[in-house]
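> call design_seq(struct)
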């Protein structure tokens, strides 16, 4: 029995400590809230409210703006004059609030000089449920705990590479801010070669880069300046490693067709090869076609018409339908990959 009393006292102390210690959140984390619709016949249901932190690039007077993202469970409609009419905290202090961005299932609210660790009542007019007839007012009561201090390090969540276009998409693990002159300051591969890199797009949790002349099978170190985690004091330079996978030359012939055509008073014979990928050829690329006895119908001197993913070969004479022939397609490769190769195979002559 004494042990039970001791256990209960320990649990009680833990609960009291949790109640006294300040709650903390990180930018981008969801909040506890209560929503109420008035003046309209249908309720506007709020799915989530997210505190995006202080954006030091946005100011009203001498106060920076703090951002809240509000996601609705169903579509809403906004009046042209929709706005935040009042923001008040649990101590009675009033703040200026702004509808920063509106959409049919979300909105962004900016509040000047917001203080963490307080509960706010936010009133928005000029909004209604998509199926309601009249516009009304949405009142949000939301608690904003003390935010965790931002890390000086910027963590990368995911890197995606489009090797063919030289594009790199970088997703960060937390919200970030960009300086007006942010840029790629260096790109170097694992062999020490340098490249030109460009920031083509930036967002609050990701960016897009372009590397000129990206090569398969190499690892790149990309250094970007002018970025910081939201809430951090100073911009910094971040290094991102990108591995571009090696790509095998998996070019193959997927279909062979034979064709005969009487043109300008003479007979022409042609074999068409369709490839599984776009094909690259040299000036010295050619096609050899033989029958089982070794007789040649196409050789190094035969005319070949190359297209994106196919080629047509002019024959010296016609093939026998239903008979099997062998081919060799010399000095070709799949677009974007490494070494040239010879494709060998056989086909049955069919239209």
């Amino acid at each position: 029995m004494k042990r039970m009393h001791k256990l209960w006292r320990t649990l009680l102390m833990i609960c009291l400590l949790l109640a006294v210690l300040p709650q903390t959140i990180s930018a981008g984390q969801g909040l506890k809230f209560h929503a109420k619709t008035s003046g309209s016949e249908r309720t506007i249901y709020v799915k989530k409210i997210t505190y995006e932190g202080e954006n030091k690039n946005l100011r009203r007077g001498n106060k920076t703006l703090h951002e809240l993202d509000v996601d609705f469970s169903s579509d809403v409609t906004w009046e042209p004059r929709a706005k935040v009419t009042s923001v008040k905290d649990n101590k009675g202090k009033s703040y200026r609030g702004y509808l920063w961005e509106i959409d049919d299932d979300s909105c962004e609210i900016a509040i000047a000089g917001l203080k963490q660790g307080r509960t706010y009542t936010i009133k928005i007019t000029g909004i209604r449920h998509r199926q309601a007839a009249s516009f009304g007012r949405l009142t949000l009561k939301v608690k904003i705990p003390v935010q965790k201090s931002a890390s000086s390090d910027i963590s990368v969540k995911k890197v995606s590479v489009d090797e063919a276009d030289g594009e790199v998409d970088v997703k960060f693990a937390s919200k970030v801010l960009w300086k007006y002159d942010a840029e790629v300051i260096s790109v170097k591969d694992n062999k020490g070669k340098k490249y030109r890199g460009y920031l083509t797009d930036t967002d609050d949790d990701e960016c897009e880069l372009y590397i000129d002349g990206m090569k398969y099978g190499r690892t790149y170190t990309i250094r970007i300046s002018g970025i910081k985690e939201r809430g951090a004091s100073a911009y910094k330079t971040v290094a991102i490693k990108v591995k571009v996978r090696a790509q095998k030359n998996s070019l193959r012939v997927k279909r062979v067709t034979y064709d005969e055509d009487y043109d300008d008073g003479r007979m022409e014979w042609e074999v068409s090869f369709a490839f599984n990928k776009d094909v690259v050829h040299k000036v010295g690329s050619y096609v050899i076609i033989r029958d089982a006895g070794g007789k040649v119908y196409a050789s190094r001197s035969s005319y070949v018409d190359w297209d994106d993913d196919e080629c047509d070969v002019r024959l010296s004479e016609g093939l026998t339908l239903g008979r099997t022939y062998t081919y060799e397609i010399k000095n070709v490769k799949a677009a974007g990959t490494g070494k040239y190769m010879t494709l060998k195979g056989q086909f049955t002559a069919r239209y």
